[in-house]
Amino acid sequence: MDQPDPKNASGLIVSATEPMRSFFALACDDIRLSEELREIASDLQSRNTVPYKLLRAIWTGSDPSTRPDLLGLFSGSNFVFTSPKPREKSEELKLRLSKLREIAERKEYAELVKDITPREQVEEPFSSYKDQLGFGLHVGLTMFTGYLVGYASFRALFNRNPALSAAGGILGLVLAMLVETLLFIIKTSKDDQIQSSKSSSSSFTPTTTKKNQ
């Protein structure tokens, strides 16, 4: 059976007592023990703490007629508790903490200069009644124009058939509405990109300014 390594011994640890040291001194010359256990006993003889596993291994392998009582070896001994090693922070946690620190610095800077720097006003689409009314009139005019163009086109193509002319007008109206919707989406997307780029540039300004200070 493999014997435990004294350098890598784990588990319960107790403080060394004089009976233990005397027992280890006798165990160094005990022929019943293996050479490895005698070396372990010699090493533990000069230590202030003793792993319980090693002590019990030496005591079990020694001569039962000469070895002391196991409980007597623990007379006056105390448990020794070792502090666990501090956990190292992972790279992901370090990066997250760095981002949180940067956000906190930005908030702190914004709080310091809020009375100096004018607050930016974000213009929302259709934020006023005038904008809403103008957009509605523009869409209505576009759809009406699309209806007229479709109606006139189908009337010329199908010999002034009323049903087909009306269908052409409806088709022109729908196409005009789709074009207007597409243009609105493109315009809104561009406005959002401009606003986000402004926000990004302003968010990096506090940290850079603080470092320069």
Q: Helices and strands in order, then pairings?
A:
Elements: E1 13-15, H1 18-27, H2 35-44, E2 49-51, H3 52-61, H4 70-73, H5 91-112, H6 129-157, H7 162-212
Antiparallel strand pairs: 1-2
Protein name: ATPase, vacuolar ER assembly factor, Vma12
Subcellular location: Endoplasmic reticulum membrane
Membrane topology: Multi-pass membrane protein
- The rounded distance between the terminal residues' Cα atoms is 68 Å
Strand tally is 2
Q: Count the DSSP helices.
A: 7
Alpha-carbon Rg, integer: 44 Å
Main beta-sheet annotation:
2 strands, antiparallel
Helices and strands, in order, run as: EHHEHHHHH
Q: Low-confidence segments, ≥5 residues, pLDDT <50?
A: 203-213
Taking strands numbered 1, 2, ... along the chain, how are they ordered across the largest sheet?
1-2
Instruction: Report the principal-axis shape.
Output: rod-shaped
Strand content: under 5%
Range of helix content? 55-70%
What would the average pLDDT be, to the nearest integer? 77
Class of secondary structure makeup: mainly alpha
